[in-house]
TrEMBL record:
PANTHER family: INTER-ALPHA-TRYPSIN INHIBITOR HEAVY CHAIN FAMILY MEMBER, INTER-ALPHA-TRYPSIN INHIBITOR HEAVY CHAIN H4. This is ITIH3 inhibitor. It comes from Polypterus senegalus. It comes from the Eukaryota. The lineage of its organism: Eukaryota, Metazoa, Chordata, Craniata, Vertebrata. Coiled coil: none annotated.
């Protein structure tokens, strides 16, 4: 029996001394407490050891099993088959695993897929029986899962949101000398970025695989202009395992390294295959109207004109320099700005605003990007230092005012476009801090005249807030990940918007010919990107599809009318032996769902409900796992009961909360055991509390203060906010 407060003081004093003083002094403090209260200190040590052992046991239960002997579980085959038809990618991953042990073993299927992809199928085959995933409305899937948990069953599927990829992970118990086959299918529309399409396949088998193979087939009716295969893990030996065949409109890439080619060293049993296998390619573009394809009553229109003069750009960089940007973030921001300024076109005008609780413009007006002004701006950037709070509202309004004055005083060309690029790493803490009020103020000030792009640096930022504010003002939000290449991420984003070629782009189709058309109006077209519109053909007797293209270029208004023959298109498709005949229909569904979910972010409550209902209907119809649906898989556990798994699709905004909780995993399960989310300086714990650095004297100050309930010498510690354990425990001290 002991008193909570005094014993916590003992722990705190020892930890505080150990972290902030020399080990010898910490030892002296420990001996001082041991001399005066030996029984209490020994009980505490014993209790801490028990908690540590119990913590280790519980955390290990959430990790892949390490007690499996080498060779017991054999991934004897791992195949990836990717078919790309006119930018629409259909990828199937198949993993075959054998349990060669004399007892049952847990087998884990753990792969990563692109964040933009929708899972459309998952199955497990064991002992001649296949268990197939079923896509359901998210609420229904959760109810089914909850019922399973109530029966004492648990889930074992994890989805993690990362930078480019999402993790799909599931485990199942396999009987001795038995095999299991996992099959995962996902679909995505490849986005053209900086002049090429990227097919990204994550390679990480974690062991040598006898039959490892990646097959990629690309079919592009426009013709393939270039193709390249990349991967940081690719050695010269592995490059020899790549076979590439490219014809006028087709390409085949095969990667099938032998066991010896997979080894890290000649005698190693570890695999060198660990990284992204990337195929970059682009298509030929010969006409200004783009490319229209029609198959099975659906059409898709790809529009990316070439040889267009760029439109002058007026850009204001609004840069957060608050105290939370300290260290590497502010350094990388300076590095990125210096590189971006170097690349600003001389036709452009620009401004720089830095902010903490106060607003500091470099100049109070936009300036032309002359060599002299660029050099002066670089010197200003070098002086940027972190300090203070975060006043996002006034900083963005200052940038809007700068653009408005430039337009009203005709400081910029009439045929130019104006954008604001906001970079921040946290929530507003100064000035107006109400998020909805800030969004309203910015929207009212911009009045659809300018475009706002929001870059959220790290995971302390409220991504949902930035996303809505950007979408309401014609832009997009992007997360900048805290990593060694953060400066490069910033530069790449600027490069995407650096060269506008057209504004107010509209692709029009006759109402009596088509319906259910995806987004057809676009504020900008940037060099290296692509506009895609899809829809349904309503007139089965139609011979031609009429299209009007309207846009504004730097020189004049652009108006183009074209008629595309429908019958010939179907014939051409058959001759080209398309991978799957309904690819345009599925492309249309994919694009429609994505756009409806994007519109729902800024829609009114009533409109949001309608948009989500429409997106949900399509998701269920095409068996897509989207933010509105979940895939339910019933997997065999034993003869008495089955286990239900639920696969959700994480969203970028959800990662904000997960990361702020200091937990890297998003688990659909009965308890959380992945990571121990304790608050650290500058990062919040599960409750969202961010400890002030001025109040933190040692890491012991960041630990939750326990309270103890005593009953017949039974100690039950319970923790306040700041940290939680994913298991329950009891300590009985004699």
């Amino acid at each position: 029996m002991f008193v909570c407060e005094s014993n916590w003081q003992i722990i705190n004093s020892i930890l505080h001394t150990g972290l902030n003083k020399t080990p010898s002094i910490a030892g002296t403090v420990f001996l001082w407490h041991l001399e005066r209260r030996p029984q209490v200190v020994m009980k505490l040590i014993f209790g801490i050891l028990l908690v540590g052992l119990w913590t280790l046991k519980a955390s290990e239960s959430a990790r892949p099993r390490r007690d499996v002997k080498e060779g017991d579980l054999d991934i004897y085959s791992f195949n990836v088959d990717c078919k790309v038809t006119s930018r629409y990618a259909y990828t199937v991953m198949v993993s075959r695993v054998a349990n060669r042990a004399t007892v049952s073993k847990e087998v884990t299927f753990d792969v990563e897929l692109p964040k933009s992809a929708f899972i459309s199928n998952f199955s497990m085959t064991m002992e001649g029986k296949t268990y197939v995933g079923v896509v359901k409305k998210k609420e229904e899937a959760k109810q089914q899962y909850d019922r399973a948990v109530a029966r004492g069953e648990s889930a074992g599927l994890v989805r993690v949101s990362g930078r480019k990829l999402e993790e799909f992970k599931v485990s199942v118990t396999v009987a001795a000398h038995s095999k299991v086959t996992f099959e995962l299918t996902y679909e995505e529309l490849l986005k053209r970025n900086l002049g090429n399409y990227d097919i990204v396949i994550k390679v990480s088998p974690q062991q040598l695989v006898k039959n490892f193979k990646i097959d990629v087939d690309i079919s592009e009716s426009q013709g393939i202009s270039f193709l390249d295969v990349q991967g940081k893990f690719l050695t010269q030996e592995l490059n020899n395992a790549i076979q590439k065949t490219v014809t006028e409109d087709k390409a085949h890439i095969s990667f099938a390294p032998t066991i010896d080619q997979q080894r890290k060293c000649p005698e190693c049993q570890e695999s060198i295959l660990d990284g992204e296998f990337i195929i970059k390619y682009d298509v030929k573009r010969e006409t200004s109207i783009g490319n229209i394809q029609i198959v099975n009553g659906y059409f898709v229109h790809y529009f990316a004109p070439i040889h267009m003069p760029r439109i002058p750009k007026n850009v204001v960089f609004v840069i957060d320099r608050s105290g939370s940007m300290y260290g590497r973030k502010i350094k990388q921001t300076r590095e990125a700005l210096l590189k971006i300024l170097q690349d600003v076109n001389e036709q452009d005008s620009f401004g720089l605003i830095t902010f903490d609780h106060s607003i500091t413009p470099w100049k109070y007006k936009l300036v032309k990007a002359t060599p002299t002004m660029i050099a002066e701006a670089k010197e200003f950037v070098k002086t940027i230092r972190d300090s203070g709070a975060t006043n996002i509202n006034d900083a963005v309004l200052e940038g809007i005012q700068m653009l408005r004055i430039a337009k009203e005083e005709r400081q910029v060309p009439k045929r130019s476009l104006s954008i604001i690029i906001l970079l921040t790493d946290g929530d507003p803490t100064s000035g107006i801090t109400d998020l909805k009020q800030i969004q309203s103020n910015v929207k009212e000030a911009i009045k659809e005249q300018f475009t706002l792009y929001c870059l959220g640096f790290g995971f302390d930022v409220n991504y949902n807030f930035l996303e809505k504010m950007a979408l309401e003002n014609g832009g997009v939000a992007r997360r900048i990940y805290e990593d060694s290449d953060s400066a490069l991420q910033l530069q790449n984003f600027y490069e995407e918007v650096a060269s506008p070629l057209l504004t107010d782009v509209e692709l029009q189709y006759l109402d009596n010919e088509v319906n259910s058309v995806t987004q057809s109006k676009f504020k900008f077209f940037y060099n290296g990107s692509e506009i895609i519109v899809a829809g349904q053909i309503t007139d089965n007797n139609l011979d031609f599809l009429t299209t009007d293209i309207k846009a504004e270029s730097v020189e004049s208004a652009l108006i183009i009318t074209t008629k595309s023959p429908i019958a010939n298109k179907d014939t051409i498709s058959e001759k080209q032996e398309y991978i799957f005949g309904d690819y345009i229909e599925r492309l249309w569904a994919y694009l429609t769902i994505q756009q409806k979910l994007s519109k729902a972010v800024t829609a009114s409550k009533e409109d949001k409900k309608t948009l989500e209902e429409e997106a949900l209907k399509l998701s269920l119809s095409y068996n897509f796992v989207t933010p509105l649906t979940s895939m339910v898989v019933t997997k065999p556990e034993d003869e008495r009961r089955n286990q239900s798994l639920v696969a959700d699709k994480p969203q970028e905004g959800e990662a904000h909360e997960d990361e702020r909780d200091f937990s890297s995993h998003r688990i659909v399960g009965s308890h959380r055991t992945s990571g121990l989310p304790m608050g650290l300086p500058g990062l919040s714990g599960p409750s969202g509390h961010v400890p002030s650095r001025s109040n933190v004297h040692s890491y012991a100050d960041l630990l939750p203060r326990p309270t103890f309930e005593s009953e017949d010498s039974l100690i039950r510690p319970t923790f306040e906010s700041g940290m939680y354990f994913s298991f329950s425990y009891q300590l009985k001290l004699q």
